[in-house]
Amino acid sequence: MLKRRTLMVAAAAATLLFSAASQAQYKDEYTVSTVLPSAFPWGQAADKWVELVKERSDGRINMKIYSNSQLVAGDQTKEFSAMRSGLIDMAVGSTINWSPQVPELNLFSLPFLMPDYAAIDAITQGEAGEAVFEAIKKRGVTPLAWGENGFRELSNSKLVIDEPSDLDGLKIRVVGSPLFQDTFSALGANPTQMSWADAKPALTTGAVDGQENPLSVFDVARIDQVGQEYLTRWHYMADPLVFAVSNRVWAQFSPEDQKLLKQAAIDAGQWEIEKSRGEVDDILAAIKERGVQVTELTPEQRQAFKDATESVYEKWTSRIGEDLVQQAQEAVANRNQ
Ligand code: X2X
């Protein structure tokens, strides 16, 4: 009897010790990587997450944001690997930048897959979104919630673009994901991969004629001031943002704190998605005001771009996963409108 009691006391003491030890493992501060800083919706999404976590944990969990991809020396395509290996604890990252390591994330970059916001939501909030999250987790990073960079529109310094042949030979800066090379090559353009850090200088010197980014990025980064006078709203793709934690770091949090981090990410993501969608009309007006010539495509004109980029699906569907692409296409077809 006495022996049993001693054992129980010992077990209780061990539990106490263990939880004290795991508490002690918490870092004073966790690094959070982003590409765009607080002036952009992307940076604001990260700010909100950090703020909510601090508040809800009564200051126990502190996160510090490092923007402009500074933790990976400006190379945003290295962010995922750095998180996986534990060099970065957490991130709010674009699906584009993580797609070199997580092929499934190329789903969102398939041209003209998602015509509107309801289509994005149908994918992220449904089975396809869950499958994408599983793929991320399997590669070493725990995804918690979705945010949104936005529909990426095309700008250039040369001409109004409303049909594929207008892109003929145009030098376009694209992000460092090979799928974009294929999309712009299919359209007859001359794509050049470079990081965001290098993009604005390249536009300024005229090393490239055009670029593609969400309206909020075009606006805040003042892309019109570097000669990008023509903008085509072709809505060819949108990059969701993913709030995530390195698996190694995630395992160190107690189940309660995991829940807290996740719920805060969900709330921050919803807040940012609503905010950035709600700002698009004002941004558009401001851009026009500054003299940018904005071209809206008719459904027929959009279809011509879609037809011209069919080859991207042929090449990339098997890499992304046939089932996943089909699931996403069905989600889009059956979306609530
Ligand atoms: O590099 C870009 O174009 C940006 C900022 O939109 C991304 O990080 C995907």
UniProtKB/TrEMBL annotation:
Coiled coil: none
Source organism superkingdom: Bacteria
Protein keywords: Receptor, Signal, Transport
Keyword Transport attached: yes
Assigned protein family: Belongs to the bacterial solute-binding protein 7 family.
Leader sequence residues: 1-24
Gene3D superfamilies for the chain: Bacterial extracellular solute-binding protein, family 7
PANTHER family membership: C4-DICARBOXYLATE-BINDING PROTEIN DCTB, PTHR33376
Cellular component terms per the entry's GO annotation: outer membrane-bounded periplasmic space
Source lineage: Bacteria, Pseudomonadati, Pseudomonadota, Gammaproteobacteria, Pseudomonadales
Pfam families, A to Z: DctP
Protein name in the entry: Tripartite ATP-independent transporter DctP family solute receptor
Keyword Signal in annotation: yes
Species for this entry: Marinobacter oulmenensis
GO BP annotations, alphabetical order: transmembrane transport
